[in-house]
Amino acid sequence: MIEFILRRLFQGALVVLGVTATVFVVTRLAGDPVALMLPLSATAEQRAAFSAQIGLDQPIWIQFARYAQDVVTLDFGDSLWQRRPAMEVVLERLPNTALLVATGLGGAVLLSIPMGAVAALRPGGLVDRLTTSLSLLGLAMPQFWLGLMAIMVFSVMLKWLPTSGFGTPAHLVLPAITLALTPLARFTMMVRAAMIDELNKQYVQTARAKGLTLRRILRVHTLRNILVPFLSISGWELITALSGYTVVVETVFGWPGLGLTAVQAIQRGDLFLVQAIVFSIAFMIVVIGILMDVISKLIDPRIELN
Amino acid sequence: MGLPMMSFRPLRSFLSELWQDKAAAIGFAVMVLIVLMAVFAPVLAPEDPATQSLLQRLKPPVWDARGSWDHLLGTDNLGRDVLSRIIWGARTTLTIGIVTCVIAAMIGTTLGLWAGFMGGRTDSVLMRLVDIQVSFPGILLILLVVGVLGPGVWTLIAVLSVTNWMVYARLVRGIVSSTRQMPYVEAAEVIGCRPSRVIFVHLLPNLVSPLLTLLILEFTNIVLAEAAVSFLGFGVQPPDTSWGLDVASGRDYLFIAWWLVTFPGLAIVVTVLSINLFANWLRVTSDPEEREKRFARTIAAKRRRRRAT
Description:
Chain A has a domain of 212 residues: MetI-like (MetI-like fold). Chain A is built from 13 helices and two strands. Chain A has a two-stranded antiparallel ribbon with strand order 1-2. The mean pLDDT of chain A is 84. By secondary structure, chain B is mainly α. Chain B has one domain: Orthogonal Bundle (MetI-like fold), CATH 1.10.3720. Helices cover 74% and strands 0% of the residues of chain B. In chain B, helix 5 runs parallel beside helix 8, helix 5 runs antiparallel to helix 11 and helix 6 packs antiparallel against helix 9. The relative contact order of chain B is 0.12. Chains A and B meet through helix 1, helix 6, helix 7, helix 11 and helix 12 of A and helix 6, helix 7, helix 11, helix 12 and helix 13 of B.
């Protein structure tokens, strides 16, 4: 188990290193940070001074060494837009994203298990066909559009919920539902498919022949067996949500989380803040990946790290 | 005389099998329609998608009391015809999707073939690279790159291909490294076939059908990613048209003109849904094991229905 965790940590460190190097290459070599961050009206002296200030006049390997040092000490410099340390902004916005993702994905997990299980009881039945069609529809909807449609119906037409913003529980409802729908569809399809496979196995027949109730078979036997694949797919969805969904959903609803901040920082050419956000998200993705693998292995010791 | 007829047979058997699954058949038909719409956009679109008209601003669709037959789906805030923009948008979306998928598949297939064929250290290094890149924060990194390099169709295609090749590499590597163990591949190597011959004649044909299926499944991901990035303002730029871009520009008129956001979004939903329906069917059909399961399910459903009546 220790070896398993160590190998996984090593792999995670490689990912963080990869992201760091990519961000470095993209920002320093492919683009011109000075032109990006300073206004067009800046004079040549101002540009040169700024370039020296952030160390761009140094040879590239010194730049990378400094950059690596920044990453290790988690000091990404000051955000030009917010005029305070970039990491401070990240830590301030992170809880908002966490709240949104936890509510949305948590809801999706809780709903998808009963929905998928009920659909799997009678494959091809009315409930099953309804769930499958709705899931397919859910997977086809872009989240930004879904969010805007939700605003149109529930905020503009029915006036039940606020259009955007942050603060009260009412503000959380629409963003969380928008974020939840795609994962919900994917989870439901997964639970359904896994349950159908599981219910066709011999041990279920045996349990039924012994006279166990369906509810007990589901709860004690089949649901446990699909736990590990369900866990890995929800870990994957969590990662996708952090690295993509939140950006879109937060932008639509003006939710002050990391995703919206990243978009605003890119629009303002605030490279340091963007770097800090990309690094933090990559770091979280790695940690979540490792946690998921460790939990899966604790649940099912047969799993091996390939 | 017999020969030309023969060539239609696979197509006909494909269509007749597709017809068994109504949802997939509808998906396929819609997919073909969208492709035709994109190809014949200049003929089909009632108006130029970029022509503005201040007098015709924010006209509702035809079934609304204030709508007119001149603009079936209404006009946007600059007086541009929504229907024409959707028809032209299909072109952008499909072009970006197809080009990106092909480039990503080429990168992935080459690296996957290389890893699977060489095995050993090359394999583990390449597959580790895949593992690492899979854990990259996708959309955020795309936004960063586009933010630095400046938005544009080609930047978008390049970035999306570089961030999406991994699935292909995994698939190809898996198939190649397992078929390499097959007696017929070993035999080919023993009698002295050159590596290129082994790869192109003996290994690649095994990949055609799974790769094609994956390509179609991945296509919808690219369509959704392109729409999202364009919506955020980092993808396709005006005066070009894109469904994601149109939703973004309609966003400011959400309160007064519902059709501006609704229709381009519906176009995305319909495209992705129809491709998904077809691709799911194709995935099952091209996999003998899955196909057998589906056959068993159909029989079981028939038996149940007979029992019920």
